[in-house]
Design brief:
By secondary structure, this protein is an alpha/beta fold. The chain is built from 15 helices and 13 strands. Strands 3-2-1-4-5-6-7 form a seven-stranded parallel beta sheet, sandwiched between helices.
């Protein structure tokens, strides 16, 4: 088959890693696979993708809403689908999910699949929620199948009436869980945490996440001084990069916490960063299935996580994690401080994390689930 995957942005996030995994498996199976992305992309991520499949750029496709650009992007995508003779168009991310499916409809593509990596209508204002849901309702009639990254994401979409239940499938977001089970700390851990030779590593929390508003690193940093005031020594390490990174660094300097709150940037060894930590953090406003929670669990690290649809597919409150209210970032900071200061609680939750069946997220299982969803959709 000729399979075209469409993404709004090509960065280094979970949705991109998930999609590239599917592209790699499909190319290895003998299909012609084309990955299309919009104007926003990480050059290194694009170069990596180009080593696996054919990559195309639609310059007029942006994350923001722009009627003129959106219409131009739909036309460009329609022409591309016709040019390559696409048998399957598989869209990802909210904006590309709408534009790509409309373009596939116009191009009369035989099979249209939408991959749901995140619920864009969760924890947004009422106007944004209405726009997102309306767009999904518009596209649902000509979407032949939906593939969600977790059962909870699928169930929420079905509850909202986004396509008939029989059109919905689940392919758990794949990752190499074994590397997180066996990793050790990185050789440069002292530099990362600003720990002098001979000193022990202080209690350490890490957050692995792209720096963007929905991840709420800035809000968490602002809550740290009050929440962590009772701890004699600690470190908070952020790994990742993105649009709010420099603002976060400036905020830390302004607060005079540069020796305690550290930044690792993008790392190719996330398993080592997690191995170095005592606890993992995730304070997002919206997620699909947070891959990093699976990685924390594989490493036996208890997590502090904001309550969202989907996290229950990975962690359980007071068993493997502390789950805090989504609208209370201060509660997340307080929970992190409590965990860092209580070794007994950490051990109990760590044992709970080690009990999570992380093998459910193996690449082989995801590849098989995607292939089966394609088969059922094309046979319908």
């Amino acid at each position: 088959m000729i399979i075209v995957h469409v993404m709004t942005r090509l960065m280094r996030g979970g949705a991109e890693e998930n999609t590239l995994r599917s592209c790699r498996a499909q190319a290895a199976a003998g299909h012609r696979v084309i990955l299309v992305h919009g104007a926003d992309f990480d050059p290194a991520a694009r170069e990596e993708a180009a080593g696996v499949v054919e990559v195309r750029t639609v310059d007029r496709m942006f994350h923001r809403i722009s009627p003129a650009d959106d219409i131009a992007a739909v036309r460009a995508l329609r022409d591309l689908f016709r040019e390559v003779g696409a048998d399957v168009v598989h869209t990802h991310q909210s904006k590309a999910g709408v534009l790509g499916r409309v373009a596939a409809r116009l191009a009369r593509t035989p099979t249209v699949i939408h991959g749901i990596h995140i619920l864009p209508f969760v924890n947004v204002g009422p106007v944004q929620e209405a726009v997102y849901v309306a767009a999904e309702w518009l596209c649902a009639p000509f979407t032949h199948g939906f593939i969600s990254v977790s059962p909870s994401v699928r169930d929420e979409c079905v509850r909202r009436g986004l396509g008939r239940p029989e059109k919905h499938f689940v392919a758990m977001s794949a990752m190499d869980v074994e590397r997180f089970k066996t990793a050790g700390p990185p050789p440069d851990w002292r530099t990362l945490l600003a720990v002098e030779p001979g000193q022990d590593r202080p209690p350490t929390a890490v957050m692995l996440a792209t720096f963007e508003p929905r991840k709420r690193q800035l809000e968490f940093i602002r809550a740290v001084p009050e929440a962590f005031a009772g701890l004699p020594d600690w470190r908070l390490l952020f790994a990742g990069r993105g649009e709010t990174l420099e603002e976060a660094k400036a905020l830390v300097e302004e607060m005079g916490l540069g020796d305690r709150i550290r930044f690792a940037g993008h790392r190719s060894d996330p398993e080592a960063i997690i191995a170095m930590a005592d606890i993992g953090l995730l304070t997002s406003l919206r997620e699909g299935l947070p891959r990093v929670l699976v990685q924390y669990a594989a490493a036996g690290k208890p997590a502090v996580v904001s309550l969202l649809p989907g996290i229950g597919d990975v962690v359980t409150d007071d068993v493997s994690a502390i789950v805090t209210p989504t609208d209370d970032i201060g509660a997340a900071a307080e929970a992190a401080a409590r965990l860092l200061g209580d070794a007994v609680l950490r051990r109990r939750l760590s044992n709970g994390a080690l009990g999570v069946d992380v093998d459910a997220w193996s690449p082989e299982r995801m590849d098989a689930a995607v292939e089966e969803a394609y088969r059922q959709v094309r046979a319908a």
